[in-house]
Structure formats: structure tokens, C-alpha cells
From TrEMBL:
Span of domain AB hydrolase-1: 85-328
Protein name: Alpha/beta-hydrolase
Organism the protein comes from: Mollisia scopiformis
Molecular function via GO: hydrolase activity
Any matching Pfam family: Abhydrolase_1
Gene3D superfamilies assigned to the protein according to its UniProt record, in alphabetical order: alpha/beta hydrolase
Protein's UniProt keywords contain Hydrolase: yes
Keywords noted in UniProt: Hydrolase
Amino acid sequence: MESLAQRPTVAEILAHPSYPDTIWKLTPTQSGYLPVAAGRGGPFKINWEVHGSGPIKMIWIMGLGSVKTAWQRQTMHFGHENGEKYSSLVFDNRGMGKSDKPLMRYSTSEMAKDLIEIIDHLGWTAERELHVSGVSMGGMIAQELAYLIPERIASLNLISTAAAIENTTTFLENMKTRVSMFLPKSLDRSVTDAARMLFSDAWLARPDDTIVPTSSTPNVVLPPSGKYSMFTSNYERFAAQELSKRLDLEGFQKKGFMMQAVAAGWHRKSAGQLKEIGDKVGRERIMVLHGTGDNMISVPHGRKLIEMLKPGTAVIREGTGHVFMLEEWQFHNEMIEGMVEKGEKGK
């Protein structure tokens, strides 16, 4: 297995022939900027896209410091390869990507209200219509969404997330982890640190296993070479995605990251509130998914969420890191599809 020292540098990743094609050009069915939060400190604009035109409405909520293209494997699978079955909404949370970055106190509840304005704008307002997946901070926003509009949720997938962030290591280790997120560091160090926090070493060392778009993928723009090419390892592909985000100085700003971090750090859903979500959404509609190798939100958080929420589907996956939709994308997509099926049957 390759060591951290053997992993390619930022300069090598940027020079890789596949780097310019890291983010796939998946043409959305609808897209726009929606002014939200008038009367809640706004208005400010949220950038959103819908991929596909099918009757099943999917919502993908991204985590701390991440942008909507991090969902591109799911966007391609659900919104393009199966776009006649699904309509998939991806968007940049306030503070990141193409959305505005207002300087104010963020909360997961307010971010859920931003999302409600988008889905209302799209006319996705029927009962039991929304299949919601949220990862990490996105899972916290998904909890708030389910608390605010439980009757509209058809399935709720809470991935690598928590009811509240608690210290499950020693005080010093916890402080070191939190502080390191904000310390100035080289780009090389930032990327290797992110990889270590988000993924298992075993996955990072394996050959790139991505299924990339091809000429037969509906509504995709191919690169000038005529095809999307591969990287050598999963680490290289992750590093390329991370660099494409971090080198977008307009989209990735420290102030947005810090304000999102405050929202995630202060997120709190009590046992009573989680019981209410379970009662009103229906526990058979809810899945909690967590990996034992998660270095970002440790597995005791997942176990505690399962204990309080009592979801119909609860999976603690041995060895998996924080980002299921990349590290275990096939398993992740199958689990989501199973929940969608269950949610649609239960209407």
C-alpha cells in the first residue's frame, strides 16, 4: 500500500492529463439562482440544478466546505443514466460554490429553510414526494428539513452524520482535530489531511474505480479528447476534485467554510425532536448509514443517532470512511435505491 509520502504532489496532480476533466460536464434539465431568506437576513442567492425529468424527486444535500459537483457520480447515475425515472436536485449551500456567502450566523435550521424555498420554487410540494439524502453537515440539514416538513418526506437518508457533535476521543485529540481545520497550511498538506480525514487508507491506495461518463451517457458534454479518462488511484481522483474546488477562489472562501463549520458545530437535535421526526416521517422511511473508519464524525455519533431515532434501516459499515458516495458508491447507490422503492410503495 502506498504511503502518504509516496502520494503525488499537488503539482503532479495538476499536471495529470485527466485533471482538466475532473469535473464532468453534466447538462442539467433545469438550473438557476434563487434569492432566498428574505426576512431571515437575506435575500441572497442559492445556485441549484435539477438533473433528469422523472417523477421521483431526489434531493442531495452536501456537507461542510463541499460543493454540488461532489455528488457527480450520483448526479450521473440518477439524473442522466436514469433521468426518465428520477429528477435529482443538487445545490450549493450558502457559503460555498456558486451560492452567495453572506457574512452572518449560519445554522442548519436556516440552511434547511433555504432548501425549502428551492423545492417550493420547483413546485415539489406534494405529500411524501421528497427522497432526501444528506451527508455529514448535509445530514444535519436533512434532519432539520424532516423536522420542518415531515409530511413531505418519502425517504430520509442520513449518512455519516450526527444529532450533535460530541467529543468521542480525548479532549486534546478533539481540540487538535478542530483547530487543524482552520490553521493555515500548504495546499499539499491541506489535500493529504482532507484525504486522511475523509477516507480509509485502503480505499485511497486502490486503483481509480470511477465509472466515468461516455458518449452514450445522456446530456453529457465530452472533453476535447472525446472521452473522460482515468486517474491511477482513488487518492489521485479525490485530490483532483479537492483541488478543483480549493483553487476556485471565488467559490471556496475561508469565511464561508468557517460559517458552515459554526452551523455544523452548533447543530443539535434532542432525543425528543428525533422521536418526533421518526413518528411523523415514519421510521420505515428512514436510513442511517455510518462507517467505523469515519475520522470526521466518529462512529459513536452514528450509533447514538440510531439509538435515538430508531430508523427502519440502520447500517454500521465496517472499515468505511466518511464519504460513502465516493468510497462505497455502488453500495451507497443501491441502499438509496432501496429506500426510494420503500418510500414510493409506502405512499
